[in-house]
């Protein structure tokens, strides 16, 4: 641990710090010996003699009181210096549960110390004001609950997929559906993905949840395909969201292959949507993983295009079939000529790269008319339908 910190060398009999001084660092001895002493009525009292691995001066990390003792090197000594800011930064990025425990321990320590010294510590630090502390506490407890509830939600079959139609704009034909996860929470009712997908990604739960989505979406696509009249247009495809973390997890491809096999669906009818965050993580690894996914026979879409680092110039490096223009462009396109030009440009380039384009979030006739005029092939949005439970959504498909 000590090598992460700045080290300082002290000659024999040099002072590391003196009683009564202000301090903002603690020290860990790497080599040598350090004496801790104080003056009582003009006489030196030695409190301790410390050696390698020992920590001293740590009170400076906890409160703003002056040094209560003097530290002197007894021989040439090397110490690692832990500055308050480093501790604060480490605390900030710590696991919330560890952070909470440290705070509680610190609070208890201060209370005990106050009782011992018969006063409230005038200069304690790192103590959050009580409102912020309560908020933190509440959030930590809520997160612990959420984590546990999410772990049980799969076994209790509380998740469901809703399906939102994707429409061919020129003809109005239903081309496919996007599968969007919902959580039938036992007390909160229907909970949307923004409230738990990001959390699941952060806490290592996206693997199992994403696996369930994959299995369920493939099975639904097979139900749709089986009910489809022979000799007609192909059955609508199902597109599902795959988080970058999920795709990067070991075993993802095996899982995808198993889901496709087990369901018996034609892989061509399945599409995986990924966002640019995957490509930003490591472009080479992303290209390799996408190529492997593609070799399963599924199609690939780049989701939320335009919100990330969005450069059309790198798209040819990845085996995408579809590009989804983010809702924010559709939303502003009718009022803002800049947005419209971006959409026009994305459409032009996509044609050159032989990519299908889906415009997301179409809410009005006006937006639809403009996208048709720009020759955008597919669209999705509340104007056509909201995400619906399977039975309702699939009933929209012509039979
Ligand atoms: P997304 O992939 O961009 O999905 C589209 C979102 O836009 C959906 O929100 C959909 O309900 C909403 N939407 C569609 N049309 C309109 C419209 O006309 N107007 C407006 N205002 N919104 C529209 P939803 O279902 O809340 O999903 C939010 C996000 O959660 C999704 O964004 C996706 O990133 C994520 N998500 C959903 N399901 C899954 C899943 O199964 N796995 C993973 N990893 N992420 C998922
Ligand atoms: Ca999506
Ligand atoms: Ca999207």
Notes on the structure:
The structure is a single chain. With 399 residues, the protein is an alpha/beta fold. It contains 13 helices and 18 strands. The protein has helices at residues 84-93, 96-117, 130-155, 197-202, 206-226, 244-248, 252-263, 276-281, 283-294, 327-333, 337-352, 365-373, 390-395; strands spanning 6-10, 15-17, 25-31, 34-40, 43-50, 55-56, 70-73, 77-83, 159-168, 174-185, 189-191, 237-241, 270-274, 299-305, 322-325, 356-359, 378-379, 388-389. It has an 8-stranded mixed beta barrel with strand order 9-10-12-13-14-15-16-17, surrounded by 4 helices. A 4-stranded antiparallel sheet has the order 1-8-3-6. Strands 2-7-4-5 form a 4-stranded antiparallel sheet, with no helix packed on it. Helix 5 (206-226) runs parallel beside helix 7 and helix 10 (327-333) crosses helix 11. The longest helix is centred in the middle third of the chain and has 26 residues, at 130-155. It is elongated and about 100 Å long. The model has no long low-confidence stretch (mean pLDDT 89). The structure holds ligand C2E and calcium ion (2 copies). Ligand C2E binds next to strand 10, helix 5 and strand 14.
